[in-house]
Amino acid sequence: MDAFILQQYDEWLADHMEEIVEQYPSQVVAIHEGHIIYTGESEEDVYRWIRKKALTPMPLVFRVPRPEDLNVIL
Amino acid sequence: MPLYVLRYKRMQGRLAPIITVGIKLEETWYPIETYIDSGAAYTLLKAGIAEGAGFDYRAGHLTSCQVGDGNFIPVYLHELELQIGSERFVAPVGFSERLGVVFHLLGRDGVFSRFKICFQEQQRLLTLEM
User: Fold this and answer.
1) Quick check: A18 contacting B, CB < 8 Å?
2) Among B16, B21, B22, whose Cβ lies nearest the Cβ of A74?
3) pTM
């Protein structure tokens, strides 16, 4: 995929991860062109929605950690 | 030599070595968030992304992997294309329904042998050098 797109996602999340963790704990979010465009309960649901929309570039999807998840990994 | 400089991500006031990488599943590239884990022998992904992408991860080689609490979890191993920066390479990638951590893990095989990875926490930077 376009390396610039990867870099853009990485930089956007470096700027916004803290607020996403506060606002969307345990949800699966899809990020596209600097916005959260969809949230769902599972990655499968979110990717199904993305396929219907045929978005490009491919949105970045991940499950937002809850505070207790962070105690484990950080 | 290519050098990629990425920022740590801050969560709950703490820094985490999480980077965006690409993975190719069924001819489509997906950006994913991965936690750089030098304790993981190979890259481990939660099965949800494979299910979402329509990738038959259970067709891979079934093995098991010991996790932090001492238990073993089933893992389906594949050789898949990954991308860091503009570098594309093939590495072993495991999928598991029972991976208990919230992020995918970017493990050593095929990655740490390709990049010199420096954790510069004081500068809040990760550098990956080929």
Assistant:
1) yes
2) B16
3) 0.95
